[in-house]
């Protein structure tokens, strides 16, 4: 089937999409957006987190056809210019990136958290990121990064 | 493979009647996993995510009717006071990403013995409204499950909503797993006290081929609360009463050994959860 949707404010089209395909596959293999990572393919790890019509989802669990006509934001779309988004900067500054595989998903999830709760408590951060697994950092630096991004305030943070 | 995208409930029922083998797809948290892992190759998918009627909830003759497409996140945010045990269970589902997409209707459709929504629906005496082009029918949740991942739906039927009485008293849900997030229940338990009807409801998850009620435990507690006039003059429950209730809950289950836990552990966990849930719910009732 042929699909049309908006990805990072750009109208995109994908052809010959198999009906059982996931949104993640379309993003990575048909649109060349490799930010959302393909790891568990069962919603357990959060590394394919994207925002679908304003809602944080695992792209691997969204049917490609379910995304037709909808608006998707991937990690590639968080910054409006070529630079980094403040959440990404905070991850770098706090040393929250090791192998980097989980980072895009965590950045998207953090972005979505701070949009809803600009000054989250630690409990809220842990709850909001509970669906994103990291096997390197032990999470402490990730929590530091979220606190850092939150303290930078909404003025610095691109919506 | 076909991909059907009905925009209305009538179109969804018509599509299901014409293609009974089409697999309904809502939040995708179960079905997409099966597709991704090559375990499911249906002739067709029936995407229900654009059927607006399934996204609604409302009151109907004193009952609450919740569309099958309402996500766990919305149950938590919008229905917490009306269905507290279900909202508690919803908070334990997966992760924010999963709760944003997963639906109670999908949980019923998957009919896993471990489905988190099932014990609260059982404990609160909920029913499932199912429909086809032939008409609709209402199935009590306790008659809905027929085996592991099996239910009473006919091939042309779809789940429309669940219907439940809004909470009249304290409700609790408890679940045992290896961590807080992303956990399939090793065992779970829900309890609903209804001071208006003077009734007790229970639901057991992940400890039998289907989710089930612990009816002997319900009857025992109802009897004790009535004979001790405890509804009208609530005082701390005698330890022997609580212990016997929790034993009756544990013995209502028929658990198995599997990768998530042993049968003996599940029974033990159920007794502990039943005791705690009753303690929490009764304390709340005493305070109210």
Give structural notes.
The complex is a heterodimer of chains A (159) and B (288). Chain A has helices at 23-30, 86-93, 103-116, 122-128, 140-156; strands at residues 3-7, 10-14, 49-52, 55-58, 71-73. Chain A is an alpha+beta fold. Chain A has two domains: 3-74, Ubiquitin-like (UB roll); 86-153, [2Fe-2S]-binding domain (DNA polymerase, domain 1), CATH 1.10.150. A five-stranded mixed β-sheet of chain A has the order 2-1-5-3-4, sandwiched between helices. Chain A is globular. Chain A starts with a strand and ends with a helix. In chain A, 48% of the residues are buried. The mean pLDDT of chain A is 94. Chain B has 288 residues and is of the alpha+beta class. Chain B folds into two domains: 2-164, Uridine Diphospho-n-acetylenolpyruvylglucosamine Reductase, domain 3; 171-287, Enolase-like, domain 1, CATH 3.30.390.50. In chain B, 37% of the residues lie in helices and 22% in strands. Chain B contains eleven helices and 13 strands. Chain B has helices at 9-18, 31-36, 72-79, 84-91, 96-101, 104-110, 118-123, 141-144, 215-227, 239-252, 263-287; strands spanning 2-4, 23-25, 44-47, 57-60, 63-67, 127-132, 135-140, 145-147, 150-151, 158-164, 171-176, 187-194, 199-205. In chain B, a hairpin with a 4-residue loop joins strand 12 and strand 13. In chain B, helix 9 (215-227) packs antiparallel against helix 10 (239-252) and helix 10 (239-252) packs across helix 11. The longest helix of chain B has 25 residues, at 263-287. Chain B is globular, with a radius of gyration of 19 Å. The model of chain B has no long low-confidence stretch (mean pLDDT 97). Classes of the chains: A alpha+beta (159), B alpha+beta (288). Chains A and B meet through strand 4 of A and helix 2, strand 3 and helix 5 of B.
